[in-house]
Write a structure and sequence with these properties.
The complex is a heterodimer of chains A (261) and B (326). With 261 residues, chain A is mostly helical. Chain A has helices at residues 2-22, 24-50, 60-80, 83-94, 98-101, 107-114, 121-136, 143-170, 180-188, 200-209, 217-223, 229-233, 235-253. The longest helix of chain A is centred in the middle third of the chain and has 28 residues, at 143-170. Chain A is globular. Chain A starts with a helix and ends in an 8-residue tail after the last helix. Chain B is of the alpha/beta class and 326 residues long. In chain B, the strands form three sheets. In chain B, strands 5-6-7-3-8-9 form a six-stranded mixed β-sheet, sandwiched between helices. Chain B has a four-stranded antiparallel β-sheet with strand order 11-12-10-13, covered by helices on one side. In chain B, strand 8 and strand 9 form a beta hairpin. The chains are: A mainly alpha (261), B alpha/beta (326). Chain A binds chain B through residues 4, 7-8, 10-12, 14-15, 18-19, 22-23, 94-99, 101-106, 110, 254, 256-258, 260-261, and chain B through 13, 59-60, 63-65, 68, 71-75, 92-94, 96-97, 99, 101, 103, 105-108, 110, 112-113, 117-118, 120-121, 124-127, 153, 181-182, 212.
C-alpha cells in the first residue's frame, strides 16, 4: 500500500514538473514574483535596523533568522499542500470532485499529491539563503538545538497544513470562501516576529489558539537556544490542528453534493 | 444474474430559493428560503451482468445523481445500493478498483500534458503491472486509432480525440462495470460511432455498461434495457422493445402521391404532417390491422409514387412518457 502511494506521489510530481516545463516563462516568472514579494519583508527589517531602530533585545540576524524560517516554512507549505485549498474550492464550484472520488486512493491524499506546485521553490530556496546568512552571524548551534529546530519546524508546517485543510473543508458548505485564506495569512504574519514584542494575550493566542508562532518564531528560537516549555507545549495545538483538518475534510466529503449534470 | 441491485434509493438535498428580480436578490442576502429537493426519490432497479443499460430522462431528472450514487461519489439519503456485492458509498476505496467511469462533461485527463502521462498516473493509482499496462494500452489505442494522438498535449486535442482518451483512461484497469454519464455529448457523428463500436466491443468482452444520455441513438444502438427517470422517480424499466411498444404498435408511413387527394381518412391512420398535396406523413396503429392491410387500403384510396415505413421515433415515445409523468 505504501509503495502504491509513493508511486502515485512520484507520478504527481512528474506531472507537476511537466506542466511547469510546458509553460517555462510562467514558471520562471512565478518563482521570481514569489521570491521578490516574500523577501521584501526581511529587506524592511534590514532598513529598520539600518536606520538605528530595532526590536527590543533582538539583533538584526536573530530577527532575520525568524523571518528566514518563516519564509522556508511558507515555501514548503506552498509547494506541498497549499494547493489543496484552491483545488477543493474549484472542484466544489464546478462539481468535479467525482474525478478524484472515483480513484481507489484516499481522496485527501490524491488532492494534496495532485496539487504539488513548484512555483514556490524559489521561496524555499530564498528562505534557505537568508537562513544560512543569519545562521552564520549567530552563536554556535548544538545538535540538540538542530533536533529541536526540526521538530518545531515540522510542527509549524503541520499548523499550515491543518489550517489549509480546515479552510478547504469549509468550502464544501461555504462555497466560494476565497477571502478566508487572506484572513489566515494576516494572522500567520504574527509568526514572523519575536513573540515577546507582543502583549501576552496576543502571544498566548499565536502560541496556543492558532499556533502561528510555530511557523517562524519557535523553530528559530530553538536555534538561538531560547526554546522554552511554551514552544514544546505549543506542539500539541499544532497536532490538534492537523488532525482536526484531516478529520474535518474527510467528514465534509460525505456532504459533497456535486452540481447539476 | 443481477450485478447491480438498487432498492428505494433516495437523495434529498437542500438549496436556497432566491427570486429572479434585483429586490429578491437583495432580500436573499438577509433572509433565504430553504427548500428541499428530492433529486432521486424511491428508485429501485436491477441490472444484469454483461448488460448495457441506458438511463434516460430530461435535464434535472436525477440521472446523473443516480449514477454518482452508483459510483460511490455521492452518499444517498436513504435506500440500498449493492454493486458486485459492494455498497459503493461505504466501500468506496475498494469498490472503485472494479469500476470505470467516463463523465462527458468532466475530464480525468490533465489539460497541459499528453494523455499518455495521465494514463501513467492511472497505472500507478490502480497498481497495474507494467506488462499488463503496455498490452492493454496497445489494445485500446489500437481500437481508437490513437497512436499519433496520445503524445500530444491534451489541450490541443479535439473533443472527439479527448473523449476517446477518456475511455482509454477509464478502461486501463479492466473494470467489470463502466458508468458513462453522457459520453457522446457534443461529439460529431463519426466520433459517436467510434465510441459506440468501442462500447459494443467491450461489452462483447463481458463489461457491463450503465449509460446516461440525451442522445436516443446511443440507447437505440447500444442498450437492451432502458430505465427512464423523471422528476427523480423511475417511470419506465424494461427492454428497448417494450419501450417502443409503450405507445402501442405504431409505425410511421411517409407517402409521396402521384396524384393529389383532398384528404386521407382511414381507420387507424392519423395524418401527422402534410408538406404539400403530394407529401403526407401518417401514423398508423397496427393493433387491429396488419401493415399489409393498411397499405392495401391506402393503395385503394390513392395512387402513390413512393412509400417508406419507419418505426415510431424514439423522441416521440420518450416525449410522451415525459409528458405523462409531469
Amino acid at each position: 500500500m505504501l509503495k502504491k502511494y509513493i508511486e502515485i506521489y512520484r507520478e504527481c510530481i512528474k506531472i507537476s514538473i511537466s506542466t511547469a516545463m510546458t509553460y517555462r516563462f510562467n514558471f520562471i516568472l512565478d518563482n521570481f514574483i514569489m521570491l521578490v514579494s516574500n523577501t521584501l519583508f526581511p529587506l524592511v527589517t534590514l532598513l529598520i535596523y539600518g536606520s538605528g531602530a530595532e526590536f527590543p533585545n533582538w539583533s538584526l540576524y536573530e530577527v532575520l533568522l525568524i523571518q528566514a524560517v518563516f519564509t522556508m516554512s511558507t515555501g514548503v507549505a506552498n509547494i506541498f499542500f497549499s494547493g489543496v485549498l484552491w483545488a477543493t474550492m474549484r472542484h466544489i464550484i464546478e462539481g468535479s470532485l467525482e474525478i478524484a472520488l472515483i480513484k481507489p486512493v484516499n481522496c485527501l491524499f490524491f488532492l494534496i499529491a495532485s496539487t504539488v506546485e513548484f512555483s514556490s521553490l524559489s521561496l524555499f530556496l530564498g528562505g534557505g539563503v537568508m537562513f544560512a546568512i543569519a545562521l552564520s552571524h549567530i552563536g554556535p548551534v548544538s545538535i540538540l538545538m538542530v533536533l529541536q529546530f526540526l521538530v518545531l519546524f515540522m510542527s509549524g508546517v503541520c499548523v499550515m497544513m491543518g489550517i489549509s485543510l480546515i479552510m478547504a473543508a469549509t468550502s464544501f458548505k461555504w462555497v466560494g470562501n476565497s477571502r478566508l485564506p487572506e484572513i489566515f495569512d494576516s494572522i500567520k504574519y504574527f509568526g514572523r516576529y519575536p513573540q515577546n514584542i507582543f502583549h501576552k494575550t496576543i502571544s498566548g493566542f499565536t502560541s496556543f489558539i492558532i499556533p502561528v508562532a510555530m511557523i517562524g518564531y519557535f523553530p528559530a528560537a530553538a536555534l538561538l537556544g531560547e526554546a522554552n516549555g511554551t514552544a514544546f507545549i505549543a506542539i500539541l495545538p499544532c497536532f490538534v490542528f492537523t488532525m482536526g483538518g484531516i478529520f474535518l475534510f474527510r467528514h465534509m466529503i460525505r456532504l459533497y453534493e456535486g452540481v447539476g449534470g | 444474474m443481477a450485478i447491480i441491485d438498487v432498492r428505494n434509493l433516495t437523495k434529498t438535498y437542500y438549496t436556497y430559493r432566491r427570486g429572479s428580480s434585483f429586490s429578491d436578490t437583495i432580500k436573499s442576502f438577509f433572509r433565504r428560503e430553504r427548500t428541499c429537493v428530492n433529486a432521486v426519490h424511491n428508485v429501485s432497479f436491477q441490472v444484469d451482468e454483461g448488460q448495457i443499460t441506458g438511463i434516460l430522462g430530461p435535464n434535472g431528472a436525477g440521472k446523473s445523481t443516480t449514477i454518482k450514487m452508483l459510483t460511490g461519489t455521492l452518499y444517498p439519503t436513504s435506500g440500498h445500493i449493492s454493486v458486485m456485492g459492494y455498497t459503493p458509498f461505504r466501500d468506496r476505496n475498494t469498490y472503485v478498483n472494479h469500476i470505470g467511469a467516463v463523465f462527458g462533461q468532466k475530464s480525468q485527463l490533465v489539460w497541459d500534458i499528453p494523455p499518455v502521462d495521465s494514463f501513467q498516473m492511472n497505472k500507478a493509482i490502480y497498481s497495474i503491472p507494467e506488462k499488463e499496462y503496455r498490452n492493454t494500452l496497445k489494445e485500446l489505442i489500437g481500437m481508437f486509432e490513437l497512436e499519433d494522438i496520445i503524445e500530444k498535449p491534451t489541450r490541443v486535442l479535439s473533443l472527439g480525440e479527448r473523449m476517446k482518451c477518456e475511455f482509454v483512461m477509464a478502461m486501463l484497469h479492466k473494470p467489470k462495470i463502466v458508468f458513462l454519464d453522457e459520453p457522446t455529448i457534443g461529439l460529431d457523428v463519426i466520433a459517436k460511432q467510434k465510441i459506440r463500436s468501442f462500447i459494443r466491443e467491450m461489452n462483447r468482452q463481458g463489461v457491463t455498461f450503465i449509460l446516461t444520455t440525451h442522445d436516443l441513438e446511443d440507447v437505440e444502438q447500444l442498450a437492451r434495457k432502458v430505465i427512464i427517470i423523471n422528476h427523480g422517480q423511475k417511470v419506465f424499466d424494461d427492454t428497448l422493445q417494450k419501450l417502443k411498444m409503450n405507445l402501442g404498435a405504431k409505425k410511421i408511413i411517409r407517402l409521396v402521391l402521384a396524384k393529389p387527394v383532398a384528404e386521407i381518412k382511414l381507420e387507424g391512420i392519423k395524418v401527422i404532417d402534410r408538406n404539400s398535396d403530394f407529401e403526407y406523413t401518417l401514423e398508423v396503429n397496427l393493433e387491429n390491422s396488419s401493415i399489409n392491410e393498411i397499405i392495401k387500403r391506402l393503395s385503394e384510396m390513392c395512387e402513390f409514387s413512393d412509400i417508406s415505413i419507419k418505426e415510431l421515433p424514439m423522441e416521440k415515445i420518450i416525449t410522451e412518457i415525459y409528458k405523462t409523468t409531469v
